[in-house]
Design a protein that fits this description.
Helix 1 packs antiparallel against helix 4, helix 2 runs antiparallel to helix 3 and helix 3 runs antiparallel to helix 4. This protein is mainly alpha-helical and about 160 residues long. It is built from 4 helices and no strands. The protein has one domain.
């Protein structure tokens, strides 16, 4: 049972890192953008990339390692339990949005932000990409919150 609790701890830690980071990152990015200060906005954009590598990616890895480890150890049939199937599908949907939309937007924003980091003008393209990033970020958070609900309730 010790292995189960270690895996469960890893799973919960991953979820905290993943959901915590995507939520907090969106909040402080919005507030950084609202300052209209190019240096603050550029710094915030750098942190988006940094926290993705430092918190989101490890959060994803720990969530998957711990979750699959617990499921396998407890003998849950990964592709027979409705809540597990739904959770995996929703997790993949969120991941596809992140990889297919959010990461490319972040890369473009990072390049633009380097151009105004020392006080230059913030382009209309950067602002449009910020709105897109927030909208798709919120959309990608919904399936993850649904996964959390499924994990806690394990409905039949």
């Amino acid at each position: 049972m010790t292995a189960y609790y270690i895996l469960l701890f890893l799973h919960y830690t991953g979820i905290v890192l993943l959901l915590g980071n995507i939520t907090v990152t969106a909040v402080w990015k919005v507030f950084a953008n609202r300052t209209d200060d190019p240096r603050i906005i550029a710094f915030g954009q750098r942190l988006v990339t940094g926290t993705d590598f430092g918190l989101t990616i490890p959060g994803i890895a720990l969530t998957m390692i711990g979750g699959y480890g617990c499921a396998l150890l407890m003998g849950y049939p990964l592709f027979e339990e409705t809540w597990l199937i739904a959770s995996q599908i929703l997790f993949v949907i969120a991941g596809l949005i992140w990889l297919g939309i959010l990461v490319p937007v972040q890369i473009r924003q990072a390049k633009l932000a380097r151009g105004f980091a020392n006080g230059g003008a913030i382009s209309a393209e950067y602002r449009a990409l910020s709105r897109r990033w927030i909208a798709w970020g919120l959309i990608s958070t919904v399936p993850l919150v649904m996964v959390l609900w499924l994990m806690v309730t394990k409905p039949a």
